[in-house]
Amino acid sequence: MEDKNLTIGDIAEELGVSKTTISRAISGKGRIGEKTRKRVLSYIEEHNYRPNVIARGLAQHKTFNLGVVLPGDYNVVELPFFQKCMLGISRVASARGYDVLLSMVTAENTSQLKRVVTNRKIDGAILTRTLANDKPMKYLLQKEVPFVVIGSAADERVIQIDNDHRSACRELTEKLLLSGIRKIALIGSDESHIVTGNRRRGFEDAFAGNGGRKADRKVFMNVVDDVQVQGIVEQLLADGTECIVCMDDFLCGCVLNALQMRQIAVPEQVQVASFYDSTILEYRNPSVTSIRFDVEELGQKACETLLAMLEGEEVERRTLLDYEVRMRDSTKQA
Amino acid sequence: MEDKNLTIGDIAEELGVSKTTISRAISGKGRIGEKTRKRVLSYIEEHNYRPNVIARGLAQHKTFNLGVVLPGDYNVVELPFFQKCMLGISRVASARGYDVLLSMVTAENTSQLKRVVTNRKIDGAILTRTLANDKPMKYLLQKEVPFVVIGSAADERVIQIDNDHRSACRELTEKLLLSGIRKIALIGSDESHIVTGNRRRGFEDAFAGNGGRKADRKVFMNVVDDVQVQGIVEQLLADGTECIVCMDDFLCGCVLNALQMRQIAVPEQVQVASFYDSTILEYRNPSVTSIRFDVEELGQKACETLLAMLEGEEVERRTLLDYEVRMRDSTKQA
DNA sequence: CTGAAAGCGCTTACAG
DNA sequence: CTGAAAGCGCTTACAG
Asked: Does the residue A191 lie in any domain?
């Protein structure tokens, strides 16, 4: 139907005006008569003309691409997080005329990100996870590529979009303490993830209040596999621990399995809670008390913030999104 | 350190040759003296020059971007599949100088894909899932965008990369029959997914041989949620079914839960197998008999095939990759 | 073997 | 309000 490769030049010729005029009609920049503008626009509409974004990009030194860097080595439990992030990001990106270029990086290999920036194929980037000593982050900082991170970072210069993990974990822990629990344990994962520190701090915060004074707490950090969890659970049971709080849902899954194998009833014999709420635990029986974050919103907000930066606006260094504590069947209600 | 925006023109001037020469030295196309070539190349090396891919693309009518379309509405269980696909794809893409542009589409909304193609931002596309009446597929076909699908499609014109699900399912089913099972059931999911049909056919194939003659089989299709599974399991248990085969791991998870709730021992009282092998079942106890596919290889192969097409090579309409049947603890060995 | 020139499809001072 | 011209950074016939 429509001419496959209509250009600004074709239209100019057809309408007997200059390419400049066509360009202005499209972009809306520069003075142009209302009549000519309408004429151009309706011609464009009718002939289904679409400007060549690549050419425009070349002229404007822009690509209209956003780089999203995804860890290539994440585990199954984290997957839904990245999926939802991506959904949020790609929605606002495409609504604003941008596309998403993917780079998968691992701790050792950040070459995909480097390609994309040295080839100047992106205008900015979004990091969907940050480690304590994050290579992609350093790289982008050094190359002066505008970027935001989803999560938190120590560096003052980086723009961060995160949920308020610390408050969330404090609030959940407080609720548990208020329900009368006096012997509680926290099992945490990799301390090189910034979020781990925040969650831990939130947990500790809860004991600063009155409720916590009398509570006995144990903390296990850098627990990464099923085997370790088995050992810890064993120990905690022997110890008469009333509630096991897990920093993430992978650990929580391990704990639940360990309890199940030992025929320990949840929440009757021991209560369980998680500092995250992935769909992976959704169908668990009993349902587990945890904290819910709107991850898609996180992605959206990150993308909006990046776009604002690209347009030269000032943005907050740190925006904290909300959360929701969900008491479920794995803990006893007060 | 290096000049941020070195161009081909700068180098030409610096070296006292023409831009043409620089271009030829880089691309390797066209006759050029060995000496000048070396001279140019070493200058480039030394000054860390990187050609502007966008500009090159404009001149060559290429983008060096591949569009990968991901369903925006997949469920948790399928996630690892897409993750591994992406890994395979993005590895070969970046090794060959291409980047990956992501489009998330749903059954109703394919606008992200459309943007990317009408904006001419990709040279070709990879579909990571196909439905029976696939919109993105039709669209790409109509727009004459080169593409490959991961999975199968009825249309003769589409290039497909898939595992040999049919053989795999036949082989697994045969093994089960050979172990002496005589009352077997298949629980299947959405028939609008092409792969579902292939798996079912493989299952049926197994009964064509001698082993199957005497076996009693039941098939349940279009089972999509936990509740349905509960009912079916109930019925199958009453019926004395010896083995329940699930078409995918979501269903398998549901079946295992249903059995667990009823305190039915696997494999002692009823055996269970799955036609897929996601990491989601990895930590299940007992481990479940299933079929393993190398999904990352699938992604790689798809990307290689697409790149071959873009270079004008002839490619196979259908390439089937291998599989591996894994007998585990959820079935009794013969 | 090498170069001048036109072209890819847009944008944007500058001039009128 | 409108246009001619130069430019974005490359490639590629064409000529020599």
From this structure: yes
pLDDT score of A126 more than 90: yes
Identify the residue among A50, A69, A79 best suited for mutation to test binding to B, counting B beta carbons within 10 A and taking the highest. A79
| A-chain residues near B116 (CB < 8 A) | 99
Please give the interface size between A and B, counted as residue pairs whose CB atoms are below 8 Å apart. Answer: 107
Asked if the structure places residue A90 within a domain, the reply is: no
> A-contacting residues of B 268-287, CB under 8 Å?
279-280, 283, 285
CATH of the domain at A11: 1.10.260.40
Which residues 130-189 in chain B show a CB within 8 A of chain A? none
Closest alpha carbon to B164 in B326, B324, B297: B324
Residue B280 lies in a domain: yes
Residue A307 CA to residue A147 CA, distance in Å, equals 10
Structural domain count, chain B? 2
Residue B103 has pLDDT above 90, yes or no: yes
Q: Say whether the CB atom of B29 is under 7 angstroms from strand C.
A: no
- List the single residue in A54, A94, A261 with the smallest CB-CB distance to B120: A54
CATH code where residue B288 lies: 3.40.50.2300
Mean pLDDT (whole number) for A34-61: 90
Q: Please tell me the distance from the alpha carbon of residue A130 to that of residue A135, in angstroms, as a whole number.
A: 9
Nucleotide nearest to B56 (CA to C1'): D10
Q: Tell me whether B99 touches chain A (CB under 8 Å).
A: yes
What's the DSSP call for residue B331?
S
Q: How confident is the model at residue A64 (pLDDT cuts 50, 70, 90)?
A: very high
Range(s) of the domain holding residue A242: 165-292
Residue A83 CA to residue A97 CA, distance in Å, equals: 21
A102/B102 CB distance under 8 A: yes
pLDDT digits (tens, 9 = 90+) for A240-295: 999 999 998 889 989 998 998 899 999 999 999 999 987 767 667 788 999 999 99
Asked if A15 and A40 count as a contact pair (C-beta separation under 8 A), the reply is yes
How distant, in Å, are the alpha carbons of A74, A243, A283, A291 from that of A223? 16, 17, 24, 20
* pLDDT tens sequence across A174-222: 999 999 999 999 999 888 888 899 999 999 999 987 655 678 999 999 9
Token readout for B173 is 């089913």
Six token digits for residue B39: 């001279």
For residue B32, the model assigns a pLDDT of: 82
Tell me the pLDDT tens digit for each residue of B163-219. Answer: 999 999 999 999 999 999 999 999 998 888 888 999 999 999 999 876 556 789 999
**CA distance linking residue B176 with residue B268, whole number of Å:** 15
Answer for the pair A104, A115: CB distance below 8 angstroms, yes or no: no
A139-187 pLDDT, tens digit each: 999 999 999 999 989 899 999 999 999 999 999 999 999 999 999 999 9
Give the H/E segment covering residue B170. Answer: helix B165-178
CA of B275 to C1' of D12 (A): 54
Q: Does some domain include residue A46?
A: yes
